[in-house]
Structures are given as structure tokens and as C-alpha cells.
Fold this sequence. Notes:
With 140 residues, this protein is of the alpha+beta class. It has helices at 5-18, 73-80, 102-115, 118-124; strands at residues 32-38, 45-51, 53-55, 58-62, 83-88, 91-100, 132-137.
Amino acid sequence: MTIDFDEMNRKVITEFRERGGKVGGMFEGAPLVLVHHVGARSGTARITPLMTYLEDDKVFIFGSKGGADEHPAWYHNLVANPKTTIELGAETFPVVAREITGAERDEIYAKQAVMAPQFAEYQSKTSRVIPVIELRRVTA
Length: 140
């Protein structure tokens, strides 16, 4: 059975927006964010729902791709075009994406793995270091 991720994402995005940032199914109770991004090569605008880790006013996302050996497309898009927009709960606001590295990355990733244990499994499945991206709110 092949999973149609585009169709699954469309359904999650619709439910997220209809329910003020909450969704059911496999993401029931998980903190989610909708990340807008522009294709690094195509220039196509996209939206990807991602599990997030929230700490104080910081929003973090993780380029796990389920433990695959390559980074997800959205990661490359945010590196190429870091100024973007996210939807968190019922709020939409501009952010700048910044990759977290070293000890800071390890600390945030470990916290995410405690909150969502599948992230520890994802890291164990690949030899690459799974990227951690901070989405920093842009203030006027």
C-alpha cells in the first residue's frame, strides 16, 4: 500500500484550520504547526504540517523524514528561503528559520524525543544528523 502524502497533508491542513490547530487521527494530541515554504528550485509555494516542540516563545521543527537517509524537501526549501510564515493554533505569523547545531541542537532534539519517542527511533534509523530548525517570530 502506497501512502499519498500530498492527500494526507491536505486533509491534516484542512482539519488543523477548521479546529484551531487541533487534529485527530495519528496526530491526535500532538503539537502541530503548518510551515509555509517555497521550493528551493521550483519556486512553488507549499505548506507542510509538522510536529513541533514549543519552549517558551520558541518553535522548533525536526527534519526527521521518518528516519530516512536524506533530509526532507521542506528543509532544503527553508535553508534556501528562511523568511516564511507559520500557522500555530489559530494564529498565523511571519518567522525566520534558523538551523540549530551542536550542543543546542542535541538538547532540543533530546527534549523532543522525550515528548515524542518516535523521534529517538528516527535518529537511530539513519546515520545523518536530523536537523533541528527554530522558527523565530518576526516582530515589527
